[in-house]
Structure of Glucose 1-dehydrogenase:
Amino acid sequence: MLLERTSMVVTGGNSGIGEAIVLAAATEGASIVIDYINHPDETAHLIAAVEAAGGHATGVHADVSKADDLQKMIQAAVDQYGRLDVLVNNAGIETRASLLETTETEFDRVMSINLKSAFFGTQTAARQFISQGTGGLVINISSVHEDWPMPGNIAYCVSKGGVRMLTRTAGVELGPHDVRVINVAPGAVETPINSTTMADPSEMKALDKAIPLGRMAKASEIADVVIFLASGKAGYLTATTVVIDGGIMQGSVGL
Ligand SMILES: NC(=O)c1ccc[n+]([C@@H]2O[C@H](COP(=O)([O-])OP(=O)(O)OC[C@H]3O[C@@H](n4cnc5c(N)ncnc54)[C@H](O)[C@@H]3O)[C@@H](O)[C@H]2O)c1
């Protein structure tokens, strides 16, 4: 198994990409703290599914936009499993508003949940890795929109652009401590964050047509890459982004 004796925290781990990462990591032997902000029942079902498959998982209610909650979440992994090896900063939201429409409240919310969380999550995990003396890995679930403007979703793009620079700079700062930081940048993935698009057949048709591989990704296809990155088979990778987008960043076919 690729992640045996690996202690991992996944933020927003009870839905979409986070849930797929939890399930894939558990199958590979990881012990997981699932951070969640809502849907405690679904989280309990997920923990039961992990345990039924012979894995170890525990849930922690933590709001990633609060540094104290991030500390509580990391401490839960240390208390449960003796140390932390991998933090996956996955939790994220969108506003779907343009520059002219975005309110200060919306902007602050997106920045807190998408960028501040990754910043202080990385800081908290790095301090833990250094005090353990083990090194460690932070994987940020960014987006193709860390680099690619999306009109009508500007606060999201700005937050993911910040995550890109966080990963590059933190990766450089932390390299001497054997702490690595990697971004995973998915294109369009079939998860609840895209429920509006997925419910609109004409929007789906246009999107599928634009993607070189002709379809959205499944959450498990993002999770499989995260498992590879966390496995130690990617040990020379840091301060950079791995793009998983069906080719769309290189050019859309149908738009
Ligand atoms: N689905 C896509 O097409 C896509 C593409 C690129 C990047 N992403 C990124 O992937 C990540 C996961 O998104 P998803 O597609 O699985 O969507 P999702 O809505 O299914 O999952 C988002 C998760 O974040 C959690 N969350 C939100 N606010 C939180 C908070 N304050 N504290 C803790 N958790 C919080 C939600 O409860 C949920 O578990 C996000 O960072 C998103 O930006 C998604």
Q: What stands out?
A: The chain has a mean pLDDT of 96. The chain is about 45% helix and 15% strand. The longest strand covers residues 179-186.
